[in-house]
Fold each of these.
Amino acid sequence: MKGRLLSLILAQLNMNFAISHSRYYYLEKRQRLWEGILIVVSIIMTALVLSFGVYKLACAFYSQAAIINQEALTLTTGILAAQFLMLILGVALVIAVFYFSNDLPVLIPLPLRPWEVLASKFAVILCNEYLGLLVFITPIFVAYGMRADVSLISYALSAIIVFLTLPVIPIAIASILSVILMRVVGFTKRKDILTIIGGFLLTGLIIGVQLYLQTKLPARGDEQEFIMQMLSQANSLVAVMGRQFPPSIWATWAVSEAGTSMGLLSLCLFLGVGAVSFGLFLALGDRFFYQGVLSGFEAPTSRRGALVDKQGRHGFSKRTPLLSLAVTEMKLFSRTPVFVLNGFIGFLMFPVMFVVLLVMGNDPQMAGLWDSLATMPEFHSIGALLVAAYFFMLTAFSGIPFSPFSREGKANIWFLRSQPISGHAAAMGKALAAEIMIVAGAIPGLAVFEYIARLPIASLIIGVSLGIASSCALCIWGVLLDMARPMLDWTDQQRAIKSNLNTVIGMLIGMVALFLIGYLVYVLFRRGYSGLVAQVISGAIIALILGSGLRVLRVAGDKLWSRVEL
Amino acid sequence: MVKAGNACLLKLEGVSKTYRGGSTKAVDSLSLEVRPGEIFGFLGPNGAGKTTTIKMIVGLLMPDNGRIIVDGHDIVKDPVSAKMRMGFVPDDPNLYNRLTGLEYLNLVADIYGVSAAERTRRINDLLSMFDLTSEVKDLIQSYSHGMKQKLALTGALLHNPPLFILDEPMVGLDPRSSRLFKDLMRSHCDQGYAVFFSTHILEVAERLCDRVGIIDKGKLIACGSMDELRKLSNETDESLEDIFLELTLPEEAD
């Protein structure tokens, strides 16, 4: 008989990766088997291509680092970036998985300790992180191992151990912060809004602390001495880089010095801190997790929002169905903490990073960079295009337009499907809501950008217009994609928006489109065309993408909608 | 407000549905009619095909064969017009938990194009009837199952649909609401409209329905008024429960 914790973890993993679900539909029922095969093959191919890209990059980085005797920096950079990203995105992920899973009402009545439930959910998060690390970190380890003078067996063994424990510390820290946050939020009445605010504050705090540590690099005037020391001492830069997140240093030494006493000591230190942070998380979780979850089940009963006449009767105003759908979509999104934390994180992350750098950075080079850029002849045209690219990038990375039907889930999609709404109208309502949210979300970043770049108003208007048009185009195609293959079966809301293949596809398409348009603009500038020409051509491409999206929606929208079956 | 304009408000002609990958038909060549002024009860054992049939009627599933006509409109060819003529409440009404009851009702009214004056009158009347007036500004997530059921019923009745489709409507309703709702169904039909509902509560079906259809293993095995069903079983004083059990007897018990 399996232990109950193992059984719970296996069941959670089964649900997370839809193992039984896929086996039943793809293998037993042979339902859309081709789709399953296509998805698996596409994921493997994409992973291989990305891994190869990371490998080549790591090899190039290693060669450059070797010139200055800093080869281990290859590992530190990768490990640091991975841990940094896991930590930043961890808060939203952990809150979603721990506190907003559909299975909590099933799990809580079971005779399980809170730490057991948390441990099983922690395991699920770790396994999801491994998938990303497999593509991102493994090629770096391979590239380093093939070039550096290491003992193969001890290196491989250490690399595997570090790989498996790499997400533990950042996710445990994010979990500890989230458990405390949710316990505090549990004392209040406006839980949803405070979860959102608290989640963003924690994420902002993490970014702020990281950037602050980064600015604690050598003090002004010591550069010469610092460079000399760096060149004379092998891998000394690792320690400097690692100040942002000390465990990244231990992980680096554990792998690069595998088989030596220093490597062993670093590995012990890395594992020890991982174990302590995980233990602390479980202890805190066992004490506070259920309190936070259960307070979330207590729905608020505030009286708000409607008109009441003298007889106590409610009064109403009428909206068009399209507007009503869009407004409802925005309300549902903005009142769901997991959607807001995941969808809006990019809207705040970039401006926060800019602001922190502006406030804390004591380096005049930062200001000088913009001054020199501002004197470039085509700076205003480039600035307008950068504004447009910012809108496009936010749309691609937010996941909002790529998951509107998925977010409804199996529980709620019946409502829209049974209403007298055409597929075209349903999609337009969703796209309109996504566009409004993205435009609103772009404002903080735009304000910071304008504060730094000081673009003339005409360029700003051109940039914003191109940006809104490009965002609309991506929204239409995103909604179409999600309508064609909505992911309605999910166990937590996180899966509907961020772990949704549609969102991943949307990001990839967005990145490719942005790269292609960016490259075209670069070529135009290189060939001496004016900024206006670049703007007109970019605008024409955006109009083409938008127009084709609207056309496809008109022709195929109703058919796609009718295929969304329950 | 949509007026019923056809002699038959719901017509199923040879409707079949096999779930993809499945070998047996969930619904097999089902044909039936629901006429204006009629409460039609749709009965059957678990897994007989009731919910699949209802899902096809309201457009949540596409039939493999056959036609479903709602007040003259084909649900496959003209889904928006067909849906405009009906109101639907599923067996487990999962509503948008993060909307208030009023926001939900306003959304439904906007979708069906109910005028401000009409929605004010209808919503207030229905809320009052279901005793939901004081909770309607709360988030739906704070509602009990019964309250959600009542809110879903209110939403489905807002535009006074010619055809009212309900999957197990009595589940979750308290006795008072249940009684009120049964009266409402009758008064709805007295306007010349129709109600099509599935239920397992045979006493309710017997007392309330003008006609009853019994489905088993996807096939309609009996359809008619209580008198017509009794004639089928050659017993004049049999209850609907007796008839149902007799007709849906498992094969090995024959």
Note: Residues 175-190 of chain B form the longest helix (16 residues).
Amino acid sequence: MLNPKPSLKTTLHALAYLAPLLIITVLFTVWPLLSAVRLSLATRSNFYTGRVTAYGWANFGALWHDPDFHRAVQHTLLFTLGVVPASVLLALGVALLLNRLPHCARFFQTLYFLPFVTSTVAVSLVWGWLFQADHGVVNGLIHTNIDWLNDPHYSLLALILLCLWQSLGFNILLFLAGLNHIDDRYLLVAQLNGATAWQRFWHVTWPLLTPTVILITVNALITNFKVFDQVYALFHGSAGPANADLTLTYYLYQKFYIENQTGLAAASGLVLFGLVLLITGLAGTYFHHWTRWLRKDAR
Amino acid sequence: MKKLLIGGRYLLLALGAVAMLLPFVWMVVISLQPAATTLTLPTFAWSSALHWENYRHAWRLAPFAQYYGNSLLVTATTTGGQLFTSILAAFAFSHLHFYGRRLLFRGLIALTMIPGELLLIPNFITLTHLHWINTYAALIVPWLTSIFAMFALRQAFLTHPQSLYYAARLEGASDWQYLWHVLVPLNRPVITAVGLLQAIGSWNAFMWPLIVTNSPRLRTLPVGLMTFTSQTGTNYPLLMAATVFVVVPLLILYLALQKYIVAGITRANLKG
Amino acid sequence: MEVTFQDITLAYPHQAPTLAHFTWTVPDGELTALLGPSGSGKTTLLNLLAGLLTPDHGRLLFDQVDVTHQGMGQRNVGMVFQDYALYPHLTVHDNIAFPLKMAHVKRAEREAQIRQFAALVRVTPFLQKYPRELSGGQQQRVALARALIQRPAVLLLDEPLSNLDAELRVTLRQEIRRIQQATGVTTIFVTHNQTDALQIADTITLLHHGQVQQTGTGHQLYHTPANLTVARFIGSPRLTTLPFAALAPALPDSLAARFASSATLVGIRSEALLATPTPIPLLTTQTMRLTAQDFLGRDIVSHLRWHQQDLISTALPPLAPGEYPLGLAAPGCYFFAANGRCLWTGGTDHAES
């Protein structure tokens, strides 16, 4: 790296390039973050002005005792557990089927990826029709008579199925990219060493693919923690029958937009942020160790 | 044996593809059924006439032209803005030396972990202060930058040898000229990819436009479609026709520019 | 344009200074080779010239004008990079046009100049091609044209031949020489390859450990090296050295006595060891043992053993291993002091004075 010494002049010069991004980021990300923390600690405030007159932990206390919040956390975790492992495994399976397919790989990839580019609201509305009790396609196909969208026992499953369908293409794409990164020669050597297809997958592909798996899992976890659009559209602006699909983000929306409980909403947002940080932190630690291990290996 | 294996792969993939495609097929099929009929799966007739007039009716029932205009405006301006601010910042982070460069960069990357939903509340309050609720500014200004886009572009900008930059500088190009005459044209595929991803996100955005607008004049397509459901109730053929409006532009864009979108996602997520 | 480095010091953080009180002058209008092994500081000098680096102390002068703190775009330096740095998205034509475009030169004038310089470096047939469609040598020529078209005060060539195969290297060496002479631009040619430097340059400066070891023509550097570093770096095969004390008994008495107290090392070029008899005046004739011969095309490298010392000669005919009386010629025989300074260069005594 040349002329590595920054000076006041170079800094001002760089700032001119950074200014547009920094101004908007400070205004709409940094400042709101601080404000959200402040609001979550506010026990008395004006909804419209955001003026806070008293501070305390009351909002977090209220969340702790709010059965709706418990339900929201529980649903979010259940939902994520329903979507993520299935989506990751299915995507891996499809990616392995697609990988080095002689013909039509591109065609299939295009099809699987369609839901990702489609408006969530639009696909949720379509699925709303598919899930109908009386003449729904889903019931028709599996010969059941479930009222998917009105039975609290099934409505979360309906949401899970929708999100699974929607997220698959994106994860397949990432897996394909990960598989492409693996040097063919490793597999060739393994084949020369007499490894069977299964052995090659388990001892060569899988270990080399692990970082991709982690990346996709973390990405999927974070995305699904924040599920909202699908809930809103599938249940027409409600949180499902008997709040059976009340998720964290929906809870936040409800508290803020419907009930004007800014403090509670901000506090629930911070809990969501905490979850995201926890997951990213764990993944970050793993990646740190993994890259260090790789470097050691290279030496 | 090998042939059988390949055949099996195709069979499984085809089954999956049908599952992926089915909702889209139904969407179109239903949109062409007679309006306001209740449909039962086994009985509705394929042979019955196709009711294209559903599209006309749906289009008239709600100001979809207005929604389209809004969506186009918001998508174009936010995507353009994001690209512009990200290109500038990505250049600074990849080519310029300044105090606090590393710290600032890491700080920005850390910000991407914040869920947008958390920022919704204070941003709403800020916009209320600015009297921006129910304006285009509310739909556009907060989205004029993207740290993801900046990161992806910086990674791309870093792949060019430094000698290229030094050569241009020695030949009398300023930083600004180098950026727009060399770096941007060289990275056109990446910039297209990043722009397309941002455009998809912007076109499909729902929660933010839902919250900061409540007049039909400002609704974007997804919000407009959602409000349309309350008007049509269970009139699924009309609803599906409207859904087709929303979905089709992006499907065309995707089919036309698929290779850029695929490259963009791969680059933004795996090369970090 | 004469280029002067005046007492320049440059240090990277947490490292010993790369350059300390460095002073060097590049003569106007000549092709100067800056020769040195990697890590000798030649890239640092190049970057200082281009303005990619700013020295901590000292001044850089272009014809007595202080350019030390001028930016890269201001000092009008042309540079050909090792990887050529051609813009991949521009045609050859547009690559060459780039500096003129940046300077807002009018279109007609621009086209005329492009034609002129494309003809000079002989790339006219490729003007509409993209860099990736060209061979390494052609890319090199385009890079030269692009650097020259802005009529630089100084032209810098950074290892311009290192990515080319042997045959192209020879051609392009001549081409660079021709183009430099046609334009008369002060040119600094940075290389670690002594053959490139010897063949191309008016003057060679040998750099080692951030210090100028010697400046002179190739002939001067080879035949009258200033010190051991120069003598070792220039010439192939490498200079053989042995302790002065080992050779002293074999030398003429007057010579041995004259350097007995000052010289510690003797350097012998491979061509200074000759088969006897020979018409060339000899310092001494000794019986040496030939252990092996390597046949490298035209050259024969003979490995010799004498009084526990290994010597090399390239002046012997094919011989069977065995003992032979061999002569040591004065030219190609150097005496060095303990600090490496050259005391005696086989009779051509420039270093003595």
Note: Chain C has a mean pLDDT of 90.
